[in-house]
């Protein structure tokens, strides 16, 4: 029983740690030297669709999945607790896929826009991230932890010297009223 609790704790701590890592990687790698891959994610939807279902940004998921696979394999060869760290990374990747790719960017065949609670906040926070064209001046770099819309609007105003007037911020404001 102690082993089961220990392994579960490792998986849960890894999921939490992955949110911290993802925030850092998103802000400093994807919006920094790794912008070449991430740029595709910030292009208009019509441009992304012209290149097919996948976007270059999906290569990040492939890299992180590869790391998780290597950790799980090393753990099963006796390098405890690496398999449970890899399992936590995989669990985080699944949550990311559901929340980010499915809910926010609706890369699934069905559409759902949350109207209240945590999922609405998550949806709006990521929409605010995309309110800025390009890699500079964005807010909300986490994927599963989301600041409030009012906090993000304040941050955007501070970074850009006033309110943004593009369609993403109007959409978020409309969604906030719904």
Task: Compile the SSE list and pairings.
Elements: H1 2-33, H2 35-42, H3 45-50, H4 58-76, H5 82-104, H6 117-129, H7 149-160, H8 167-177
Helix pairs in contact: 1-2, 1-5, 4-5, 5-6, 6-8
**Dominant shape:** globular
| Cα separation of the termini | 47 Å
- SS class: mainly alpha
Helix content: 55-70%
Radius of gyration, Cα only, in angstroms? 18 Å
How many DSSP helices?
8
* Elements, N to C (H/E): HHHHHHHH
- Name the beta content range: under 5%
Q: Using DSSP, what is the number of strands?
A: 0
Mean pLDDT: 87
The residue ranges in which pLDDT falls below 50 over 5 or more consecutive positions are none
Reported for the largest beta sheet, the result is:
none
How would you characterize the overall build of this protein?
This protein has 178 residues and is mostly helical. 70% of the residues lie in helices and 0% in strands.
Q: In short, what is this structure?
A:
This protein has 178 residues and is mostly helical. The protein has eight helices and no strands.
Name the descriptors.
single chain; 178 residues
